[in-house]
Amino acid sequence: MSLIAHLRALHTVDSQVRGIKTRFDNAEDALRRHELKLDVVSGKRRDLDKQTRQVQAMISNLELEDTTFKERLDHLRAELNTSSNPKIYNALRDELKVVEGKRDELAERIMAQMENLEKLKKELESTDSPSSDQTRLRDMAKATLQEAKSELGGRLAELEAQRGRAADLLKEEVRAAFDDAADKNEGEALAEVTIVSLRHREFACGGCNAELPLDAYSRVAAQADQLVTCLTCGRILYMDQIPDRPGAKKTKVAAKEAALDPDQLG
Ligand SMILES: [Zn+2]
């Protein structure tokens, strides 16, 4: 088996491994995205809930204060009703006014906090549906990932073992070049040399279209199991059909083909 045949076998199984991994990665990314969105909504809800409880506690305290004022006022009024001394009466009346004023102020503060509470409750309520929507989406993303893993997890392990065996047949440097090319080119580690013009000795990488030096073409065309990579994209280059050199003595079949297709030689 030629080097390219080995590399092709590796590529076949490597593409399948990459395909499954990409599916897992995409499902994991989607799950992460939904978890983040849910975190944002949940965080907002927690904040609002905390604020709501703080305001509720504040209102309770203010109401307690109000009870104290009320008791004081009741007491002052009772005293006022029984007072016969005008001096004491006036003093009690003045104090009554002061406490009443304070109690009015307090009532305003309670009202303001109650309005605040209503606003917070409404805001909290408005996060109900986004929160359940995001929870549903997160759960769906989780299910998709789990499904993919249970459906393809076994297959992936099998393919990875196959891939390991295919890679073991190659020299370390070839394996490294393949992995590098595959990583850089979304799994497309191999590329056929394109003949731009044989007469002008112009060749290109079939993967990235970069021009190839004549030397690279010659080494690929020699089909001597040499590792030749495109300097631009790193893909490992191959040629299935090696054209005759221009001017070289043509075989009958090649000459016939050339005659049928005058553009073949560029
Ligand atoms: Zn290239």
Task: Give the SSE layout.
Elements: H1 3-82, H2 86-126, H3 128-168, H4 172-184, E1 190-197, E2 202-205, E3 211-212, H5 214-221, E4 236-238, H6 252-260
Helix pairs in contact: 1-2, 1-3
The protein binds zinc ion.
Residues 191, 205, 207-208, 210, 230, 232-233, 235 line the site of zinc ion.
Describe the structure.
The protein is α+β, with helices and mostly antiparallel strands. It folds into two domains: 3-158, Helix Hairpins; 175-265, no CATH class. The chain has six helices and four strands. The chain has helices spanning 3-82, 86-126, 128-168, 172-184, 214-221, 252-260; strands at residues 190-197, 202-205, 211-212, 236-238. The chain has a four-stranded mixed beta sheet. A hairpin with a 4-residue loop joins strand 1 and strand 2 (202-205). Helix 1 runs antiparallel to helix 2 and helix 1 (3-82) packs antiparallel against helix 3 (128-168). It is rod-shaped. The site of zinc ion (ZN) has 9 residues, from loops.
Order of helices and strands: HHHHEEEHEH
Q: CATH homologous superfamily of the largest domain - what is it?
A: Helix Hairpins
Poorly predicted spans? none
The count of β-strands is: 4
| Beta-strand content estimate | 5-15%
What gap, in angstroms, lies between the N and C termini? 32 Å
> Any idea how many domains?
2
CATH class of the largest domain: Mainly Alpha
Helix content: over 70%
What does the radius of gyration come to? Answer: 41 Å
Mean pLDDT: 92
